[in-house]
Design brief:
The complex is a heterodimer of chains A (625) and B (898).
Chain A (H helix, E strand, L loop, with lengths): L2 E2 L30 E4 L2 E4 L4 E2 L14 E3 L9 H7 L5 E5 H20 L12 H4 L16 E2 L3 H9 L1 E4 L5 E3 L3 E7 L7 E6 L4 E6 L21 E5 L9 H17 L4 E4 L5 H15 L7 E4 L3 H10 L6 H7 L8 H6 L3 E4 L5 H5 L5 E4 L9 H8 L6 E4 L6 H5 L8 E4 L8 H11 L3 E5 L24 E3 L16 E3 L1 H5 L4 E4 L2 E3 L5 E5 L2 E5 L30 E2 L4 H10 L5 E5 L3 E6 L4 E6 L3 E4 L4 H13 L2 E2 L1
Parallel strand pairs in A: 1-5, 5-6, 6-8, 12-13, 13-20, 14-17, 14-18, 15-16, 15-17, 18-19, 20-21, 22-26
Antiparallel strand pairs in A: 2-3, 4-7, 9-10, 10-11, 11-12, 23-24, 25-26, 27-32, 28-29, 29-30, 30-31
Helix pairs in contact in A: 1-4, 2-4
Chain B lengths: L29 H11 L20 H8 L3 H4 L2 H15 L8 H17 L2 H7 L1 H9 L8 H14 L3 H9 L2 H6 L13 H14 L3 H9 L2 H8 L5 H18 L17 H15 L3 H17 L3 H17 L8 H13 L1 H6 L3 H11 L2 H13 L5 H21 L4 H8 L8 H4 L3 H18 L11 H16 L7 H10 L3 H14 L6 H16 L5 H17 L11 H10 L2 H6 L4 H18 L3 H9 L2 H7 L6 H16 L19 H11 L3 H17 L2 H4 L2 H13 L4 H19 L21 H10 L2 H9 L4 H19 L10 H15 L12 H10 L2 H9 L9 H14 L9
Helix pairs in contact in B: 1-7, 4-7, 4-48, 5-8, 5-48, 6-7, 8-11, 11-14, 13-14, 14-15, 14-16, 15-16, 15-17, 16-18, 18-20, 18-21, 20-21, 20-22, 21-22, 21-25, 22-23, 22-25, 22-26, 23-26, 25-27, 25-28, 26-27, 26-28, 26-29, 28-30, 29-30, 29-31, 30-33, 33-36, 35-36, 36-38, 37-38, 38-41, 40-41, 40-43, ...
Classes of the chains: A alpha/beta (625), B mainly alpha (898).
C-alpha cells in the first residue's frame, strides 16, 4: 500500500490582459512573440500553466490513499486523479471538499474567461530557456507544466473523495488506521494520525494555534506519537498576524479617508472571513460606515453562505451563536445592512452599483488572472488608491512586476495564521513526540536572516530533516503484529503458570491472514477415515494435524542426570564441560549425550533402543506442556 | 492634654471599686461577672488611693463635675461606657460569634487611642467588664479564635502602662493569658490569629522593664523563637519583629548611655536573643539563617544606638562565614542586612571590615542576587570609591555582555568594562530565556533608578548605556544582526519580548536627560522610529515608545536663535508624521489613544514653531484627530478632545471637505465640543471638553473671545445638568476663570495661571456683577453649593467666598436688593438645600446676589463640608452599636454592617 499526502503548488507564467508589449529580444527570434518585457523583467505571454506534483519518486498509479490536509493543498487533485492512473481513495473533510471545489471552480472560471488559443512552448526549449533571465531560466520541469483543468475534471476528481469527520477512525487495508484531527487553520483543515497497533505517526501540516474562525487545533490527540511529521508552518515567520491585521485596517482607513479605493487580492475563502470580521468591528471606529465593501468572485455567494452552515467545524464562540440562533460570522450583518455586497463578476449588477471610494476583495491573488486584473488596470494609475496584499503565497513584488510603472500605493500585510516557531516549540513541549521529522529549511534560520536563531525548530532530540526528493527511514521498526484468537480456540487453551504472573499455553491453530489482519482459528478436525477409501490422497494429509508432541522446558542438572544414568545401569560415565554446556560420554556404550542450553543431542550408532532409553531419561528432567 | 500616668494626680470622683460590690450587673452571665469581681477584688496597694476616685459615666452630678475637668470624656464617652458591658458580654458568649473581623480591629484601634491618651488603669477600673472579658476568655470553652486574639491584644495594650501591668499582674491575669497555662498550650493555639494576637499582645505589653522580667519568667522568648518559623508568614514575621523590639527594650534605659563593651555584660534577655541569632547563623538550615538575618536587618534599620555596634562586632564574623558557602544561603536576606548595616550611621563609620565584606559579597553572589546589592551600594551617601566602581561594574555586567555578544564598537565596550568588573560571557550570565529576560529587566530598572540620583557614578557612561539600550531594543525587534553565536542566542531569547522592550524604552527615555554622541542619538531616533513603525509593536510598547520619543525630542538641542527643533529632530519628525496617521487609524484603541496623547504633548511643546507647524499641517494628522472625536471608545474621544483643543488653540485646525461630507459645511469645533458635552454618554470626553473650554477661556481663544458671555452661559448651563461630578466641578473652575477675568484678581491667588488680557475693572459693583448675572453663574454656583457630591459643594463654597471677598473691595452701597426678592431667593435656596432643586432662580440682579451672599453662612458651610461625611458612622459609639446590632441580627441575616 502506498499512502501519500499531496501538497500541490502551482507556478504561473504571465497572462496579459490589455497589455501590449513590444518584443525586445531579437536574439530569441524564434520565441520573441512569446516573451514580453516590462520594466526590465521578462515575461511569457501564454495561457497560464501549472507545475504539477513531482512524480519521480512515486508512481501515482500505485498510490492507494491520499489524505488532504486543507483546501489550499488540493488544487492539483484533478491532475492526479484524472491523468496518472490513480485508482486509490482520497480522504478529506466536508468543508475541505466544498471550499476546495469553490477555489477550483473560481480558478477554472478565471482561466476560461480569457481563452487563448495556444500555450507558449518555444521558450521551454532548454537551449533557449537557459539564456533567459531569472526567474524564467530557473523554472523547473517546465516541460511538465500543464494548462488548467476543466470543471468536468474537477467534478470527477471530487467524486473520488470520501468524506470523513474529525476523530473518525478509518481503517486502511487493516494495516493502519488513519484519523483526521482539527488543525485550527481553516474550515475543515486536518492533521492526520496514522497508527497501527504499536506505532503512531502524526502528520501535522498547516496548523494554527490562533483564535480564528475554525475549530481549535486538537493537540491532545497528537500525544504519544512515535514520529511527528511537521510541515506547512507559516511562510512569513516574522509577520505577526495581529500586527498585520492592524496594518491592514489602518492602511485601508487612511486610503479611503483620502478618497482612494482599496484593492485586496485574495482567495474567496479563508482569511477573508477573518478580515471581514475585523472590519465589521473596525469600520464604525474608523468612521467608514458609509464606505461600500465589494466581494467579487464567481463563488463569492457560495463562499459566504458555506461559511455560515459549517457550524460544527467552527470555533466554540461561533458554534454557540448558531444556537441563539444567529449567523456565526458577522458578514451576514454586513450583507444585510448593504455594507458588504458580493457579485459573481464585475460585469452585470456590479457596474451599476459600483460607488467610489470603496474596498474591493477579489481574486486572483497572483494578479495574473481574474477580476483583480481589471482593478489593477483601473486604479493603478492613481496614487490615492492602494492595493493591500494579504495572501502569503505570492511574492507581491513579482505579482506587481508586469504592472509597472504603478502609481497606486502597495502595502504588504501577509496574514499567515499557521504555526510560527515559538508556537511549534510550545506544541512540541505539549505533545512530546519521540521523534520530529521536518523539512530541512525548518532546522536552520532563513538564509536572509541567518542570525535569527529563533526562526528554526529547536527541540530535543533534534528534529530529523529531509530534503527534496530524499527518502527518509522513519526511526522505528515494526516489531509486533497483533493477532486475534477466535473465542472457541481461546476456550481450549490451558495455561500453565511458569512464573508468578506468567502463564504459557501451547496453541495449535491455523493462522489466517487477510487484509493485514491476523486471526488464529481452531485447526480443522482430523478427517475421519471413511470405510470406502482405503488410501488417502497425498494432498489430504496437509490439513491433518500430526500427533502433537509436547513442548519441553526446563534444564537438565548434570549431576542428577549422571546419577540417574548410573541407576539405570550405565557405567564408565565421563562428563566434560564445554563452552555451551556439557558432554556426557558413555564410554562403554560408545554413546555421547550433548547437553546445551536449548538442545540435547544423543549420538549413538544405530542403537535405536538405547537412544530411546536415554531420551526417556532426559525427558524425565524436563517439564512438558 | 498630657496622658495620665499612675503617679499623677487623678481628678476627683466617686470611688466605687474598692469594696468590689458596686459593679453594675447590667449584662452578661453571672459567671462572667464573678471572674471580673475576683480579679478586681484585689486592688494593688501600689495604686494611689485617688485612683478609686474616678468619674463614672452617668453616676450623678459628681460624675458630671469630674467630666467637667475634661479628663473623663477623654477616657471614654459615657454613651460608649454604657454600651461596653453589653459588648463584652457579646464577645464572651461563644453562642454569639462576631462575624466580622474588621469590627474587632476597629475596636482595638479605638482602645489604642484611649490608652494612648489616658490611663489604662482608670479605663479598667471604670469599665470592669473589660477585666471580666479578659478573665472569661481563659476559661476552657468554645470561644472563637478571633475573640481570643482580640483579648490577648487588648490585654497587651492595657499592660503597656506599667501601673496597669502591675494591676493585672496582681490578679495573675497576664501569666494566665501569655504563659504556658494560657492559650499557648491549648487547642486554640492552632489558629494563626491566636498566635498572632499573642505576639501582638506581647509587642504592646513590652514597654517597660517590668515587662522584660515578665517575659523572662513566663518563658515567652523561647516561644517567640519557635514562632519565627511559623507556618503563617504573618505570625513568623511578627515574631521576628517582636524579638527586635525585646532586644531593643532590654538594651534601653539604664544601659542606654553605657552599652557594655562585651555582650556578656548585657541583660539576660538580650543575651538569650543574641545567642539564638548566633546559633541560627551557624545553622545549616537556610530558613533559620534567613530568620536571623531578618532580625538583624530590622534591628540595624531601626536602631542606631551604640550597642548595635557591639552586636555587629560580635556577629559580623558569622555573617562573613556565610559567604564562604556555595551557594551563599539566604542571599536576599544577606543583601538586605549588609545594606542595612551600611546605611546605619553608627555601623558604617566604625565597622572596619564592612566594605570588604560588601566587596566580597558582590563577587560571591550570582548576578541576579548581586544586582540589588550593587544598586544599594551605589545609593549610599558615603562609600569607598573602589567599592562603588565594583558595584557599578556588577550592575553593568548584563549590558556589557549584550555589547560583547553583539560585537559593538570596542570604544563602547571599554568604557563599560573598564569599571573593573571581570568579563563574563553571555552563556554564564544569561543562560536561559527566563534568566536573560529577568536580569535585563532588573538591570534596566536599577539603572533607571540610579540615573537621576546625585550620587550616581561619575563619570556616567552615557554613550555605552545608550549603545547597549539601543542594541537590546534591536535584539528585541529582530533587527540587530549579531555576528557571534552568543549574539544569536541572545537574539533568540529577546526577540519579541515585550517585558524587555518596555524596560528598555523606559530607560531610554530616562537617558534623554544626558547627552550622547551624535551618531548614537541618530541611532536612538532610528530605533524609536522602528518601534513606532513596526506593526508588531504591542500597544504598551508603543505607548512607551511614544513617551521615550517625546522625551528625546524635548532634550534635543534647539536651533540657535529660536526655540524650534534642531534639524535632526526635524528630519525625524518628517519620518514620524507619516506613521502617526496609521497609528491614529489603528483598530486597537490603546494605540489610537497613545498616538493622540503624544500628539497633544507635541503640539503643547512645539505648536508655535514654524517648522513643526508646516510638517503637521502637511500631514493628515489634524483631520484624523478631528474624526476621532467620534471614536467608539470613550478614552480615545477624550484624548481627541484634548488634542483638538490644542490644535485649535495653536491655529492648526484644518477644515477640508471630508470624503464623508463632500462639500458639506464643517461644524465649528466649539459646536462640536458642545455637542460632546451635551450628548456623550461617557464621562471622560465630557471632562476633557470642560478642560479644553477652561483653557480656551483662560487663553482668550478666538472662538470664545468673540462672545465670551454666551459661551460661558451655554457651557455652565450644560455642565450643571451633567451627572458626572467632575464635569460640574470643572464647570466651577471655568466659572472662576470667568469671574476673575470679569472682576480682576490678585495675581497671587493662582500663580500658575497664565495672565489673560483682563478687562479694566468695572467701576461699580453692580456693573461688575452684571455679566456674571447674565451668564447665570450664580444659579450654577448656588446649585453646586448644595450638590450631593462634596468636592463640588466645597469648590462652589470657595468660589462664592472668593466672590464675596471681591465684592467687599468695591465701594458704594452693597447688598441693597429689595427685601422681598432676597427673601424669595433665600427661600428657594433653602428648598434646594432640602433637595428640591426643581425651581430655577431666574435672572438675579447684582444687588440681590450681594445681599444673599452676605446673608449666607458660607464659612459655616465650608466647615461642615470639611468634615468627612462618614464622621457619624466612624464614631466609637456607632461602632459599638454596629457590633451589637450585627450580633443581634446574625440569626436572621448575615449582612455586613460595614
Amino acid at each position: 500500500m502506498q499512502c501519500a499526502q499531496i501538497q500541490i503548488n502551482y507556478y504561473y507564467v504571465g497572462l496579459w490582459t490589455g497589455h501590449d508589449f513590444h518584443s525586445q529580444f531579437p536574439s530569441f527570434a524564434t520565441c520573441s512573440k512569446e516573451l514580453k518585457e516590462c520594466s526590465g523583467h521578462v515575461f511569457v505571454d501564454s495561457v497560464p500553466e501549472f507545475c504539477l506534483p513531482e512524480t519521480e519518486l512515486i508512481d501515482l498509479s500505485t498510490v492507494d490513499v491520499i489524505l488532504i490536509s486543507n483546501y489550499h493543498c488540493m488544487m492539483a487533485l484533478p491532475y492526479i486523479t484524472e491523468h496518472t492512473g490513480f485508482t486509490g481513495t482520497v480522504y478529506a473533510t466536508e468543508p475541505t471538499v466544498q471550499i476546495g471545489r469553490l477555489l477550483m471552480e473560481e480558478l477554472v472560471n478565471f482561466i476560461e474567461r480569457v481563452p487563448k488559443a495556444q500555450s507558449a512552448s518555444l521558450w521551454k526549449n532548454k537551449d533557449i530557456q537557459r539564456l533567459l533571465p531569472s526567474p524564467l531560466k530557473d523554472a523547473v520541469e517546465v516541460s511538465t507544466w500543464r494548462r488548467c483543468y476543466t470543471m468536468q475534471e474537477v467534478n470527477s476528481a471530487l467524486s473520488k473523495i470520501q468524506l470523513v469527520g474529525y476523530s473518525q477512525k478509518i481503517e486502511l487495508f487493516g494495516a493502519v488506521q488513519v484519523t483526521p484531527l482539527s488543525s485550527g487553520y481553516a474550515l475543515g483543515s486536518s492533521n492526520w494520525i496514522i497508527q497501527s497497533h504499536y506505532e503512531k505517526v502524526s502528520y501535522v501540516s498547516g496548523s494554527s494555534l490562533l483564535t480564528t474562525h475554525p475549530q481549535p487545533m486538537d493537540q491532545a490527540s497528537l500525544k504519544n506519537s512515535d514520529v511527528l511529521v511537521l510541515t506547512g508552518l507559516t511562510q512569513i515567520p516574522t509577520a505577526n498576524p495581529d500586527g498585520m491585521v492592524g496594518e491592514f485596517c489602518s492602511n485601508l482607513a487612511l486610503t479611503v479617508r483620502n478618497g482612494g479605493n482599496v484593492l485586496v487580492p485574495c482567495y474567496p475563502s479563508g482569511v477573508i472571513y477573518d478580515l471581514l470580521e475585523c472590519l465589521y468591528q473596525y469600520i464604525d471606529s474608523a468612521g467608514l460606515s458609509n464606505i461600500p465593501f465589494y466581494f467579487i468572485s464567481p463563488v463569492a455567494n457560495s463562499s459566504l453562505e458555506f461559511s455560515q452552515i459549517f457550524a460544527e467545524w467552527l470555533c466554540h464562540n461561533k458554534q454557540t451563536k448558531v444556537y441563539l440562533p444567529e449567523p456565526p460570522f458577522p458578514h451576514a450583518e454586513l450583507i444585510q445592512t448593504n455594507k458588504l455586497k458580493h457579485y459573481p463578476s464585475l460585469h452585470g449588477d456590479f457596474s451599476s452599483d459600483f460607488r467610489q471610494p470603496c474596498v474591493v476583495f477579489t481574486g486572483h491573488p497572483s494578479l495574473r488572472f481574474g477580476d483583480v486584473v481589471h482593478f489593477m488596470e483601473l486604479w493603478g494609475k492613481s496614487s490615492l488608491n492602494t492595493v493591500i496584499f494579504t495572501e502569503p503565497d505570492f511574492s507581491y513584488l513579482e505579482a506587481l512586476a508586469p504592472y509597472q510603472p504603478l502609481a497606486m500605493k502597495c502595502i504588504y500585510c501577509p496574514i499567515d495564521t499557521r504555526l510560527n516557531f515559538i508556537q511549534v516549540s510550545k506544541l512540541l513541549k505539549e505533545v512530546q513526540p519521540l521523534h520530529v521529522v521536518c523539512p530541512e529549511q525548518y532546522t536552520q534560520p532563513p538564509p536572509a536572516q541567518s542570525h535569527r536563531m529563533d526562526l528554526m525548530i529547536d527541540c530535543q532530540p533534534p528534529a530529523m530533516s529531509y530534503r527534496r526528493a530524499e527518502v527518509l527511514a522513519l526511526p522505528f521498526k515494526r516489531r509486533y503484529e497483533k493477532i486475534e484468537i477466535m473465542p472457541e480456540l481461546a476456550d481450549s487453551l490451558v495455561p500453565m503458570e511458569i512464573k508468578p504472573g506468567i502463564s504459557l499455553a501451547t496453541v495449535s491453530a491455523v493462522l489466517h491472514t487477510k487484509d493485514n489482519k491476523h486471526v488464529l482459528q481452531p485447526p480443522p478436525r482430523p478427517t475421519q477415515p471413511t470405510g470406502g477409501k482405503k488410501r488417502k490422497r497425498a494432498s489430504d494429509d496437509i490439513p491433518d494435524c500430526k500427533v502433537l508432541k509436547p513442548l519441553l522446558s526446563g534444564s537438565i542438572p548434570v549431576e542428577q542426570f549422571v546419577q540417574a544414568l548410573e541407576k539405570h545401569g550405565f557405567s564408565d560415565i565421563k562428563v566434560e564441560d564445554t563452552a555451551k554446556g556439557h558432554i556426557v560420554l558413555l564410554q562403554e556404550a560408545e554413546t555421547l549425550i550433548q547437553i546445551e542450553e536449548d538442545s540435547t543431542h544423543i549420538i549413538c550408532d544405530n542403537d535405536e533402543m538405547l537412544r530411546v532409553r536415554l531420551r526417556d531419561l532426559v525427558l524425565k528432567f524436563l517439564q512438558k506442556f | 492634654m498630657p496622658p495620665a500616668r499612675p503617679d499623677t494626680e487623678y481628678p476627683g470622683g466617686r470611688g466605687h471599686a474598692s469594696s468590689g460590690h458596686s459593679l453594675a450587673p447590667s449584662a452578661g452571665s453571672p459567671a462572667f461577672w464573678r471572674d471580673a469581681r475576683r480579679a478586681l477584688g484585689r486592688v494593688p496597694p501600689s495604686v494611689p488611693a485617688k485612683i478609686r476616685q474616678v468619674a463614672r459615666p452617668g453616676a450623678g452630678p459628681e460624675a458630671a463635675e469630674g467630666r467637667g475637668a475634661g479628663i473623663s470624656s477623654l477616657i471614654m464617652d459615657p454613651e460608649c461606657s454604657q454600651l461596653l458591658p453589653a459588648l463584652c458580654s457579646v464577645l464572651a458568649d461563644p453562642r454569639q460569634p462576631v462575624a466580622d473581623d474588621t469590627c474587632l480591629e476597629k475596636l482595638l484601634d479605638w482602645f489604642k487611642t484611649i490608652t494612648e491618651a489616658g490611663s489604662s488603669l482608670l479605663l479598667l477600673q471604670e469599665n470592669p467588664c473589660l477585666l471580666g472579658l479578659l478573665c472569661h476568655v481563659l476559661k476552657p470553652q468554645d470561644l472563637s479564635p478571633r475573640v481570643l486574639s482580640f483579648s490577648l491584644r487588648l490585654a497587651g495594650m492595657l499592660a503597656a502602662q506599667e501601673d496597669c501591668f502591675q494591676y493585672l499582674q496582681q490578679g495573675e491575669l497576664l501569666p494566665r493569658l501569655f504563659g504556658e497555662a494560657g492559650p499557648l498550650g491549648g487547642a486554640a493555639w492552632t489558629a494563626p490569629s491566636v498566635r498572632s494576637g499573642w505576639i501582638q499582645g506581647l509587642r504592646s505589653l513590652a514597654r517597660h522593664p517590668s515587662a522584660l522580667c515578665f517575659l523572662a519568667d513566663c518563658g515567652a522568648v523561647d516561644t517567640i523563637f519557635s514562632l519565627q518559623g511559623d507556618s503563617s508568614l504573618f505570625v513568623a514575621s511578627a515574631a521576628g519583629q517582636l524579638l527586635v523590639h525585646i532586644l531593643g527594650l532590654s538594651l534601653q534605659g539604664p544601659a542606654e548611655g553605657h552599652p557594655g563593651l562585651q555582650t556578656g555584660d548585657w541583660p539576660v534577655c538580650a543575651q538569650k536573643i543574641v545567642s539564638h541569632i548566633e546559633e541560627s547563623l551557624r545553622s545549616a538550615a537556610t530558613p533559620q539563617i534567613t530568620q536571623a538575618l531578618n532580625v538583624l536587618t530590622t534591628t540595624f534599620g531601626h536602631c542606631h544606638d551604640p550597642w548595635t555596634q557591639v552586636l555587629w562586632g560580635r556577629l559580623s564574623p558569622l555573617v562573613a562565614c556565610l559567604l564562604e558557602k556555595d551557594p551563599v544561603p539566604a542571599a536576599h536576606s544577606l543583601v538586605d542586612l549588609l545594606l542595612s548595616v551600611a546605611r546605619s550611621p553608627v555601623l558604617s563609620s566604625s565597622s572596619s571590615g564592612l566594605w570588604e565584606t560588601l566587596a566580597q559579597t558582590l563577587s560571591h553572589l550570582s548576578p541576579t542576587q548581586a544586582g540589588p546589592l550593587a544598586l544599594g551600594i551605589l545609593k549610599l551617601q558615603e562609600c569607598p570609591q573602589v567599592l562603588r566602581a565594583q558595584a557599578f561594574a556588577v550592575l553593568l555586567q548584563p549590558l556589557t555582555c549584550v555589547l560583547e555578544a553583539t560585537a559593538q564598537a570596542p570604544g563602547l565596550l571599554d568604557s563599560l568594562d573598564g569599571t573593573g568588573g571581570a568579563s563574563v560571557t553571555v552563556d554564564t550570565l544569561l543562560p536561559s530565556k527566563a534568566a536573560c529576560v529577568g536580569l535585563l529587566c532588573r538591570t534596566l530598572a536599577h539603572l533607571e533608578l540610579l540615573q537621576p540620583l546625585p550620587q550616581r557614578p561619575s563619570p556616567w557612561p552615557q554613550a555605552p548605556l545608550l549603545g547597549a539600550t539601543v542594541t537590546i531594543l534591536r535584539l528585541c525587534s529582530g533587527s540587530a544582526t549579531p555576528t557571534s553565536d552568543a549574539g544569536g542566542h541572545l537574539c533568540a531569547f529577546l526577540v519579541g519580548c515585550v517585558r524587555v522592550q518596555r524596560a528598555a524604552l523606559d530607560f531610554l527615555g530616562t537617558l534623554s536627560q544626558g547627552t550622547g554622541p551624535r551618531e548614537l542619538v541618530t541611532q536612538v531616533f532610528a530605533v524609536l522610529l522602528e518601534y513606532l513603525t513596526s506593526p508588531d509593536s504591542s500597544p504598551t510598547v508603543l505607548k512607551k515608545a511614544f513617551q521615550a520619543t517625546f522625551r528625546w525630542l524635548q532634550s534635543s538641542p534647539e536651533t540657535p536663535g529660536c526655540s524650534d527643533l534642531d534639524p535632526h529632530a526635524h528630519l525625524f519628525l518628517r519620518e514620524l508624521l507619516p506613521v502617526l496617521p496609521k497609528r491614529l487609524c489603528s483598530p486597537c484603541w490603546e494605540v489610537r489613544d497613545s498616538g493622540l496623547e503624544f500628539l497633544t504633548q507635541m503640539i503643547g511643546r512645539w505648536g508655535g514653531q514654524a517648522g513643526f507647524r508646516r510638517a503637521l499641517l502637511a500631514s493628515e494628522v489634524p483631520e484624523l484627530t478631528e474624526q476621532l472625536l467620534r471614536d467608539p471608545e470613550s478614552y480615545v474621544r477624550a484624548s481627541a478632545v484634548a488634542a483638538m483643543g490644542q490644535l485649535s488653540s495653536q491655529g492648526l485646525r484644518v477644515t477640508p471637505a471630508s470624503p464623508e461630507h463632500p462639500g458639506g459645511q464643517q461644524k465649528s469645533l466649539l459646536a462640536e465640543l458642545l455637542h460632546i458635552l451635551s450628548t456623550d454618554s461617557e464621562g471622560f470626553p465630557r471632562r476633557a471638553v470642560m478642560h479644553v473650554f477652561t483653557q480656551w477661556l483662560r487663553d482668550g481663544h478666538a472662538d470664545v473671545a468673540g462672545d465670551t458671555e454666551r459661551f460661558v452661559a451655554r457651557v455652565l448651563q450644560v455642565a450643571s445638568q451633567d451627572l458626572d461630578w467632575e464635569v460640574r466641578a470643572q464647570g466651577l473652575e471655568l466659572a472662576l476663570v470667568f469671574l476673575e477675568q470679569t472682576l480682576g484678581r490678585p495675581s497671587s491667588h493662582c500663580p500658575y495661571a497664565v495672565t489673560p488680557p483682563v478687562a479694566a475693572p468695572p467701576s461699580s459693583l453692580a456693573q461688575a456683577l452684571r455679566p456674571l448675572c447674565r451668564v447665570q453663574l450664580f444659579e450654577f454656583a448656588f446649585r453646586a453649593l448644595f450638590d450631593c457630591d462634596r468636592p463640588v459643594a466645597q469648590k462652589s463654597c470657595d468660589l462664592l467666598l472668593f466672590l464675596r471677598a471681591q465684592t467687599a473691595s468695591y465701594g458704594g452701597p452693597q447688598g441693597s436688593g429689595s427685601v422681598p426678592e432676597v427673601a424669595s431667593v433665600e427661600a428657594a435656596l433653602q428648598r434646594w438645600q432640602a433637595g428640591d432643586q426643581g425651581q430655577p432662580l431666574g435672572y438675579l440682579e447684582p444687588e440681590v446676589v450681594v445681599a444673599v451672599l452676605r446673608s449666607m453662612d458660607l464659612e459655616g458651610l465650608r466647615g461642615a463640608l470639611a468634615e468627612s461625611s462618614d464622621r457619624v458612622e466612624k464614631s466609637p459609639q456607632s461602632l459599638l452599636q454596629d457590633v451589637l446590632a450585627t450580633v443581634g441580627a446574625l440569626g436572621e441575616d448575615e449582612a455586613d454592617c460595614y
